[in-house]
Design a protein that fits this description.
The chain is globular and about 55 Å long. By secondary structure, the protein is mainly α. It contains 15 helices and no strands.
Length: about 325
């Protein structure tokens, strides 16, 4: 979630390509607007979480200025009618819409921003609906539809229906589990109780080493940011157990989502003031961290340095 750039500049330290198979080739194809090569690279990804991460990484490229329209047109032009190409086009519409809305809370988003946001997400939803109708077993389209359900405010029931359709096809897509968890958090009109139940549900059916149990770290980080007091010891133990059962388990098979989980575990143990326990996760990320909820490069580097000191290790600044 080693870097795909030999020397990434400061503002790209959080590198969405670093943990993708052949991420350097995909990035290079995006840089030169070679969407045919991008699609070829995407077709070579056979693991659901790798493909999900790659789709969102491609779709999140060039969202500023004139590049936004140019790159969007290039993605539209390469749409050959296959479910993958259509899903990429839809995910691009989602990322364009969200870039206009921004990640701010609703009270800080203007009516004009919301109007454009909804317009882009409705465009995405139309494409994804067609893909899921014609290719009901195509997991990436269902994963994207969990996010469009949240953005279009279609309700928890509809979002859950979409998640269940995906889980019936593949119950171990961590990207989908994280997307649905966002839907049922209080900040999206959900509740901590519903979110906790879903986290436990995912963990209950997880095989040793599978990432599903790591969802508790996402829940715990969100809870820690929402609460003012110290992290409860019961929550620390819950997350500690999850780390041992997932990314630190000998049977864990690494995917692009592994880095996302390591980043969240590192952030949780940082918030819990347990830097030594954060260190194995920082160490696994190396100089290719996943941004998550860190809020920028400086907080990440500061926390990583503290974790290294607590673990008796030395980190050379990236």
């Amino acid at each position: 979630m080693a870097s795909t750039r030999d020397a990434a500049p400061q503002d790209t330290f959080f590198d969405p390509w670093a943990h993708l198979p052949d991420g350097a080739a995909l990035r290079a194809a995006c840089d030169r607007d070679d969407l045919a090569a991008v699609l070829a690279g995407l077709r070579g990804l056979t693991v659901a979480d790798d493909l999900a991460a790659a789709l969102w990484a491609v779709a999140s490229e060039k969202l500023a200025g004139d590049d936004r329209a140019t790159f969007t047109v290039a993605i539209e032009a390469v749409d050959d009618g296959t479910p993958l190409a259509r899903t990429l086009r839809a995910v691009r519409y989602v990322t364009v819409g969200w870039s206009i809305r921004t990640r701010l809370r609703a009270e800080h988003v203007s009516a004009a921003q919301f109007e454009q946001f909804f317009d882009w997400l409705r465009r995405a939803e139309r494409v994804l609906f067609e893909v899921c109708s014609e290719h009901p077993h195509f997991v990436p389209a269902w994963e994207a539809r969990i996010t469009t359900a949240r953005g279009l405010q279609l309700g928890h029931g509809e979002a859950r229906r979409r998640y269940d359709r995906l889980a019936a096809l593949d119950p171990a897509v961590f990207a989908a589990q994280r997307a649905y968890l966002q839907q049922i958090l209080p900040k999206w009109s959900g509740s901590w109780e519903d979110a906790s139940r879903f986290v436990e549900e995912c963990a209950a059916g997880a095989a040793p080493g599978a990432l599903a149990s790591a969802l508790v770290a996402d829940y715990a980080v969100e809870r820690a940011f929402d609460d003012d007091g110290p992290v409860p010891s019961a929550m620390v133990e819950r997350v500690r157990t999850a780390a041992a059962a997932t990314v630190l388990h000998p049977d864990h098979v690494r995917t692009a989502a592994t880095a996302t989980a390591h980043s969240t575990f590192a952030l949780f143990f940082t918030l819990a003031k347990l830097p030594a326990e954060a260190w194995p996760h920082f160490e696994a990320l190396g100089d290719a961290p996943v941004e998550g909820l860190w809020g920028g490069l400086h907080p990440f580097r500061k926390a990583r340095a503290a974790a290294a000191r607590a673990a008796g290790r030395r980190v050379v600044p990236a």
